Amino acid sequence: MDRTGGVTPRTGGDILTRGKRQRHVDTVRVTLTRTVQRAIAESPGSMRGLAAAAGVSPALLTRIVDGSRAATPAVALKLATAFQMWGASCARAVKQLRAAARRVPTLRTGRTK
Fold first, then answer.
1. pLDDT at 2 over 60
2. Are 57 and 51 in contact (CB under 8 A)?
3. Could you please report the per-residue DSSP string of 74-106?
């Protein structure tokens, strides 16, 4: 996977600053993906059931688990909502997913939520 995620970097500014910022974004995205992978693995139900409850494709969850696709904040929040619906046994996963999703900077502003 390329470092920019298919997005053309903005022009201007110090190249070292952009590099540091990009490394930070990459690190946060990896953390989000690992958190989502852990939550899926610890899910009390099947991956297909989790995908249905979250409103995402089971294939998407499979790709995230096997590492061929990175998780996004939107997927993390959908999974958190599904776990929340499933009950208190998933409270830890909900908290971790929402926290990880908040740490990812948006592409438009570069700021976290």
1. no
2. yes
3. HHHHHHHHHHHHH-GGGHHHHHHHHHHHHTSPP
Of 112, 87, 97, 91, nearest to 33 by C-alpha is 97
Overall domain count for the chain: 1
- The CA distance from 25 to 94, in Å, is 22
> Is 5 inside any structural domain?
no
Domain that holds residue 76: 16-102
- Section 74-99 average pLDDT: 85
pLDDT tens digits for range 22-49? 788 788 889 999 999 999 998 888 999 9
CA 77, CA 59: separation in Å to the nearest integer?
A: 17
- Quickly state the pLDDT bin for 1 (edges 50, 70, 90): very low
How many other C-beta atoms are found inside a 10 Å radius of the C-beta of residue 57? 12
Shortest CA distance to 38 belongs to which of 85, 102, 95?
A: 95
**Hunting for tokens 């297909």 — which residue is that?**
48
Beta carbons of 100 and 90 less than 8 angstroms apart:
no
